[in-house]
Amino acid sequence: MIYPRFLLVRKGCPHCRKVMKVVNRINPKLPFDRKIKIIDCFEYEEFGLKNIPLMNVFGSIGLNEGYPFFYLDGIVVEPPPTPEQLNIFLKTFLKKELII
Question: Is the pLDDT of residue 59 over 60?
Answer without folding.
Answer: no
